[in-house]
Amino acid sequence: MNGAHDLGGMHGFGPVEIERDAPVFHHEWERRAFAITLATGFLGKWNIDQGRFAREQMPPAEYLATTYYEHWLFGLQKLLDDLKLVSHAELAARTKDPASPVAPVTGFRVLAARDVETALRKSRTSKADEDVAPRYKVGDRVVTKNIHPLGHTRLPRYARGKRGVVTLDHGVWVFPDTSGNGLGRKPQHCYAVRFEARELWGDAATLGDAVYVDLWDDHLEPA
Amino acid sequence: MSHDHEHDHHHHHHHDDVQEHREHGAPLTEVELRVRALESLLVDKGLVEPAALDQLIDTYETKVGPRNGARIVARAWVDPAFRQRLLEDGTAAVAEHGFVGRQSEKLVVVENTPAVHNMVVCTLCSCYPWAVLGLPPVWYKSAPYRSRAVIDPRGVLGELGVGVPSDTEVRVWDSTAEIRYLVLPERPAGTEGMSEEQLAALVTRDAMIGVAKVQPPAGAAR
User: Fold this and answer.
1) Is B2 considered catalytic here?
2) Does an H or E element contain A166, and which?
3) Is B173 helix (H, G, I), strand (E, B) or coil?
4) Distance from CA of B113 to the nearest CA of A (A)
5) What CATH homologous superfamily does A28-122 map to?
6) Is the N or C terminus of chain B more exposed, i.e. has fewer CB atoms within 10 Å?
7) Are B82 and B174 in contact (CB under 8 A)?
């Protein structure tokens, strides 16, 4: 979707400010938002692409006015509500009353502390084992599709309808543009595609500079 | 893990938390209330185990961080065979050090040289190689970096004090898939006699994202 998350090439956000000696988390609530998001991810009820798509559906004005972990929280609340695990109404009630009633849920394998290390080490969300033939080989000239889907896509707006060259073949991966929309894994090759800066941004860009975008077979056509 | 008040008391009921905050003089913000309510619901429903939450936080706050990546870089600087393996198959080479896992299913290492300057961004979210760099810093996740890194990388680099000569090619890697990118920075002059450990101490997170150069140690011959 053409959401506020698709930031590449926008103007007006000001300078990049690097905080020296920044802590990993700036507030206790960020620690908790991070941890409940990761832990509930291991319930296996949604995949990483659906998780990203949930965050992307934050209204644009709100997305730009909030921080990273607020985006995470929005996405988590949406997924939990959509899946009837924690409803928005239950959350609103609990915010006012720490003893608010809960609707029970059962049948989940919950991430246990003793399994955290193994779960993180083995976490493998998107690499596909299927033997799928690549449609392109390194060196091939390609053009990206000009698509504007309402659902999830990993083809950024700035790289649509642009000519590039396949530079690395990363092998076979789950396709987020279907996986994130509940339409299946559709495993296919993913490539690093090189776009000349001038192809993307015009003659004001420095000749010879380039942007590499990881894209899938279904994003590309021969050029 | 930082064992501050908020953390140690976290699993108490909410009125305790509110009380605690009032003692500290600050009312809970809307987002703090919301996160606490959500966590308590998840615990009550048996969807998360509190001890697992603490362990997840501890892992990324104290165990996994840019020191992992710095060790990889220093090794590559002193061991040409490792450097070659790293550039050919980053995933396998860092796995030799035990650095595997979430948000690093496949790692590609790109090398900065006098001819090429690489930098990494994720314009669509904030993908980042957790296994070797830990969690991303705020600036990496911010709209200014995500919007500008692809359209004006030289401008961003210049503001951050990295001058890139016009005949050096700038390559920006937009992490739109589950492949993660790590920059192998240039080894600074004046470090010839340094040990691998001393070298690792020079390597910064920002240099491994490609928005800084590794500085020689103070007093080193330039």
Assistant:
1) no
2) strand A163-173
3) strand
4) 14
5) Nitrile hydratase, beta subunit (1.10.472.20)
6) C
7) no
Beta-bridge mates of residue B116: B169
Determine the residue type at B46. G
The interface predicted TM-score of the complex, written ipTM, equals 0.97
Q: Which of residues 144-163 of A touch B (CB under 8 A)?
A: 154-156, 158-159
Q: What is the CATH number of domain A141-222?
A: 2.30.30.50
The Cα B74–Cα B82 span in angstroms is 10
SS3 B183: strand
What is the least distance, in Å, from the CA of B83 to any CA of chain A? Answer: 19
Q: What are the Cα distances from residue A20, in Å, to A17, B130, B137?
A: 9, 19, 10
Domain ranges of chain A: 28-122, 141-222
pLDDT digits (tens, 9 = 90+) for A190-200: 999 999 999 99
B125 is catalytic: yes
Residues of B in contact with A73 (CB under 8 A): 31, 34-35, 38
Tens of pLDDT, residues B48-94: 999 999 999 999 999 999 999 999 999 999 999 999 999 999 999 99
Residue, of B57 and B22, whose pLDDT is higher: B57
